[in-house]
Amino acid sequence: QVPLVESGGGSVQAGGSLRLSCTVAENISNVNVMGWYRQFPWKEREFVAFISSDDRSKYADSVKGRFIISRDNAENTVALQMNNLKAEDTAVYYCAADRSSELGPNGRVVAYWGLGTLVTVSS
Predict the structure, then answer these.
(1) Smallest Cα–Cα separation from 52: which of 17, 91, 100?
(2) CB under 8 A, 24+ apart: contacts of 14-18
(3) What is the 3-state secondary structure (H, E, C) of 27-83?
(4) 71 strand-pairing partners
(5) Looking at the DSSP assignment, which residues form a beta bridge with residue 122?
(6) pLDDT tens column, 27-69
């Protein structure tokens, strides 16, 4: 079974908003940090944001002030509210989770991944 399942992707005009959601599978345990990466065509995945189990969060400079990450530990979900979207935000967004307290810039040590959800922002 897929450990993480994303939803909420779609197509919006520049300046619009989307809210992504990710649900952790019931059989996944000892998860601390959860967050998001994105991947552009022909490029390596890029860190977007994370939030730890104690609600400490971090954002990439490219999305700071526009995106807000949150989590609901009771429902075992993490969400990414994306506001003032730009064409440069167009990418496949991947949910990630790990037993550590942070997510790195490239996600090479991430334990669990979702399959991704496509976000397309038109100008």
Answers:
(1) 100
(2) 14/85, 14/86, 14/87, 14/121, 14/122, 14/123, 15/84, 15/85, 16/85, 16/121, 17/81, 17/82, 17/83, 17/84, 17/85, 18/82, 18/85, 18/119
(3) CCCCCCEEEEEEECCCCCCEEEEEECCCCCEEECCCCCCCEEEEEECCCCEEEEEEC
(4) 78
(5) 13
(6) 777 889 999 999 998 898 999 999 998 999 999 999 999 999 9
Residue 118 predicted with pLDDT over 90: yes
Rounded to whole angstroms, the Cα distance separating 118 from 76 reads 22
* 57/37 Cα distance (integer angstroms): 14
DSSP character for 94? Answer: E
Q: Cβ distance 118 to 20 under 8 Å?
A: no
Alpha-carbon distance of 85 to 80, in angstroms, equals 12
Any idea which residue has 């334990």 for tokens?
111
Look-up: residue for tokens 């994303």?
A: 6
Kindly report, residue by residue over 82-93, the tens digit of the pLDDT.
999 999 999 999
Q: Give the three-class secondary structure for 100.
A: coil
